[in-house]
Design goal:
The chain has 14 helices and 23 strands. With 420 residues, the protein is of the alpha+beta class. The strands form 6 sheets. A 4-stranded mixed β-sheet has the order 21-22-1-23. A 4-stranded mixed β-sheet has the order 2-14-16-15. The protein has a 4-stranded mixed β-sheet with strand order 4-5-3-13, with helices on one face.
């Protein structure tokens, strides 16, 4: 079992490259099933969730292997349409394989997915949309038995702009006859990345980044070489780390357009955020100020995945900042751990009020989820003394090597192995 040891007090300086996006590569790995050939994914991050997706591909009879920072996936040997309960429980995003398997095989069998416990995240929207395309889905004892010998394109209207449902329907629609229009679709940059990957493989997908995505189905797809977009949440995390610890950093590959709400919040707090064609920089000097209320919302609103790290950056700010979490019910699980470090945070339902503390102190804390774990790292950089962070497997789900990147920027942080 691993833990991170962080000694606060160092300002951050220097440059680091932002890894490929976790929330982009996972649906793209599912999409490789549609090609029946070999795909090379460049700038693919080495993550626990990527490893789980690779295991799913291999269980289905496909092959995947690393060559440096590239992942080679060959799905020609697909010989199964069932994903085991053990693999499904490893991550919430495993549900994305349903649409791709249905499009390729005409049937699929899998249990409900697992992942971080952030409150109810039902896949009802996924299932309803697939049924609209002609899939027959039965739920027996938590196992989904799906049949779709003939998917048909049509308009599918989502009641919520769900990222996962939009991606699942895009994949399924590639195997449907005719044209599918997904209305009230999610608009996240990762949706655009999935569209660009599918089109590079020969698909005809348009509209990603808007509220309507259109897919012309039954086009023959082939393998390709594709570069994964940079991870906007990792970039947001490192910007917040610099804001909390002070200093000046440059994030190579980061895209300001993907970070506009986070950048705006940090500018309001007193940071200087600048962008050029190659990346984004953050300069933080002196105490940060409180900012206007932060309310999470679907893109292009403030991302729920960046809520915890921004909160951690503002723990020593002047005044109070209000956070409202509108996406997930249990997204404040990290708050109790931050309070152990001296943070002044009060939570009432979906609202959290952060009042700047005079100082933070190092303490033993544990990760409760992926982004909450990253927030503990941000807070630890601004704390006096040493912070030990346990259960960092959550962090490894989305950050390739957070201690390496932060150490490159001057942080005093190491990973150690605990004796059990």
């Amino acid at each position: 079992m691993s833990q991170l040891l962080v000694r606060g007090g160092n300002s951050l300086r220097g440059e680091v490259a932002v890894q490929g996006a976790k929330n982009s590569v996972l649906p793209i790995l599912a999409a490789t099933l549609l090609t029946g050939g070999q795909v090379e994914l460049r700038s693919c991050p080495h993550l626990r969730d990527v490893d789980a997706s690779i295991r799913i591909l291999k269980t289905l009879g496909c092959d995947a292997r690393w060559e440096g920072d590239s992942l080679l996936a060959d799905t020609a040997g697909l010989n199964s349409c069932a994903v085991s309960d053990i693999l499904m429980r490893e991550m919430r995003s495993s549900a994305i394989f349903l649409g791709a398997i249905l499009a390729r095989c005409g049937e699929a069998e899998m249990s409900y997915p697992g992942g971080c416990e952030l409150g109810p995240r039902p896949i009802d929207l996924h299932l309803a949309g697939l049924r609209d395309l002609g899939a027959e889905i039965q739920d027996s004892g938590g196992v989904l038995y799906c049949k779709a010998p003939r998917l048909r394109g049509r308009e599918v209207i989502l009641s919520l702009p769900s990222v996962g449902a939009t991606e699942n329907l895009m994949l399924a629609a590639c195997g449907a006859e005719g044209v599918t229009a997904i209305s009230n679709a999610a608009r996240e940059p990762e949706i655009v990345d999935l569209q660009e990957f599918l089109n590079a493989c020969g698909a005809a997908v348009s509209g990603a980044g808007t509220s309507t995505v259109t897919v012309e189905g039954k086009r023959p797809l082939h393998g390709c070489t594709y570069g994964i977009m940079p991870d906007r949440i990792v970039a947001a995390t490192y910007l917040c780390a610099a804001a909390a610890a002070g200093g000046e950093i440059y994030l190579r590959n980061a895209r300001e357009g993907h970070l506009s709400t986070v950048a705006a919040a940090l500018r309001e707090a007193g940071c200087a955020i600048r962008a050029d064609r190659d990346g984004v920089s953050c300069t933080s000097r002196g105490q940060l100020g409180s900012i206007r209320p932060v309310r999470t919302a679907p893109y292009p609103g403030f991302p729920t995945d960046a809520q915890a790290v921004l909160m951690a950056a503002l723990l020593r700010s002047r005044g109070a900042t209000v956070f409202e979490e509108s996406i997930f019910e249990n997204r404040y699980r990290h708050v109790d751990e931050l309070i152990r470090m001296g943070a002044d945070i009060r939570v009432a339902g979906r609202v959290a009020v952060v009042t700047g503390a005079e100082k933070l102190r190092g303490a033993p804390v544990r990760c409760t989820d992926l982004r909450g774990g990253a927030a503990l790292c941000v807070a630890a950089l601004a704390a006096e003394g040493e912070t030990s962070i346990d259960e960092i497997g959550h962090i490894d789900r989305g950050y390739e090597c957070i201690e390496r990147d932060l150490r490159t920027l001057g942080a005093d942080i190491v990973r150690t192995e605990l004796e059990i």
